[in-house]
Amino acid sequence: MNAHPTSEPLSAQDRPARLTVGVVGAGRVGPALAASLKLAGHRPVAVSGVSDTSRRRAAELLPGVPLVSPAEVLAAADLVLLTVPDDVLPGLVSGLAETGAVRPGQLLVHTSGRFGAAVLDPARRAGGLPLALHPAMTFTGTAVDVQRLAGCSFGVTAPEELRLAAEALVIEMGGEPEWIEEAARPLYHAALAIGANYLTTLVAQSMELLSTAGVSAPARMLGPLLGAALDNALRSGDAALTGPVARGDAGTVAAHIAELRAHAPQAVAGYLAMARTTADRALAHGLLKPELAEDLLGVLSDGGNQ
Question: Taking the CA of residue 207 as centre, how many other CA atoms within 13 Å lie in the half-sphere pointing to its CB?
Answer without folding.
Answer: 12
